[in-house]
Amino acid sequence: MNKLLDLIVKKPSPASTENKVRVMNIVLAIILAVILWAYVIGEVNPETETTVSGVPLRIVGENVLESKGLTLLTEFDETVTVVVSGRRSDVYNVNASKLSAKIDVSGCVEGENQVTVQVSAPDKVSKAEARDGDFLVLVDKVVTEDKPVDIQVSGNLSNDTSVEIVGVSEDKISVTGPSTYVEQVSSLTGVLNVKDSVNEYNRNVEIVPTDKDGNLVEGVELSQTTVGVEAEKMMTKTVNVEVVTSGNSPEGMTVSPASGLKLKIRGKYDEMKNITSLKTSPVDISRITENASVDVTIQLPLGITALDNGGDPIRNQTDDSVTIKVDFIVRSAADESEAAAADSGDNAFSETAGNPDAAAENSGAGTAGGDGTNGEQKATEGE
């Protein structure tokens, strides 16, 4: 019986009691910490700070600047980052949709201006400021200036052809914008794309503002963005010049122009492609008694231009003619006889050399009467 009672009322050991006390203390500490945290959060509600990004930024007052003939040069980002301060419970749910930011430029003047970002936030937020609070705002006056139109030709053409601009609907166009940008505009450039298969062009060409280096200038407006362009396919070629003579050589003399005379000309492709030679006006040789360079007129077809060796128009020409110098060579009868004898001797030598075919060819060729290259130079430098 005593043993049973001992089992029922058995006393715990000292070690077991100590463990229970330790566990109870830990549990009590946790409970007290949770209670204290709940009190601080719920009752004390401490001040805190948070950062909100992506807040929309508005620029206001631009219409006021426009009324003063001014405009903004500074470009702004669409959003800013805002630092928000307040009670934790008040700022905990603040996001970009509940904030707004603006810059008021209505009071700016020409030049540099320091402007502060204004931030709007819920009433319970104690403080809301843009992280980059101040902006340097540049303001410029608006000007309008006329700038020249420059049409450039681009495309693959054969070596003897080109395209010439014969008409542009506008030679100048108004450019409006900040004076800083307008001053950079050197010309309004358009590109006419061409190809060999097209002989005439009549189309609208888009133009853009460019600086002196051909780079696009942004931030300006044009009074119009296209111009009408007329252009024609041109051909350049070198043709033979036939010197026409009148009268008879002085008695006992033979007067003849230098052979191989050529002239470089340029004109519309359709009119040029069938021209192979040109004739001079008649030259009276009856008065030429010694070697001389004579001014001779060549009639030019309508729209055809004579060129010098450098490809530039010869100066002394009109719309339908050009004057060049032609060398005339005078030989006496004795000179002619000697030339004929020398030619005959050369032919005989060729025949004795056992080459009768070559002799026949030389005999048929006769004398050239001058160098073709020299002839061309006289024609193109006759100015």
User: What is the structural class?
Assistant: alpha+beta
Number of helical segments with 4 or more residues: 9
Give the CA-based shape: rod-shaped
In the CATH scheme, what's the topology name of the largest domain?
A: RNA Polymerase Alpha Subunit, Chain A, domain 2
Uncertain segments are 347-383
Query: What is the radius of gyration computed over CA atoms, rounded to a whole number of angstroms?
Result: 49 Å
Query: Roughly how much helix do the residues carry, as a percent range?
Result: 10-25%
How much beta, percentage-wise?
35-45%
Report the mean per-residue pLDDT as an integer: 82
How many domains? The number is: 3
User: Which architecture of the largest domain would the CATH scheme give at its second level?
Assistant: Beta Complex
The largest pleated sheet is described as: 12 strands, mixed
Number of β-strand runs: 22
> Span from first to last CA?
154 Å
Molecular structure report:
The chain is of the alpha+beta class. It folds into 3 domains: 86 residues, Beta Complex (RNA Polymerase Alpha Subunit, Chain A, domain 2); 93 residues, RNA Polymerase Alpha Subunit, Chain A, domain 2, CATH 2.170.120; 138 residues, Beta Complex (RNA Polymerase Alpha Subunit, Chain A, domain 2). Strand 11 and strand 12 form a beta hairpin. The protein is rod-shaped and about 155 Å long. The termini are far apart. The C terminus is likely disordered.
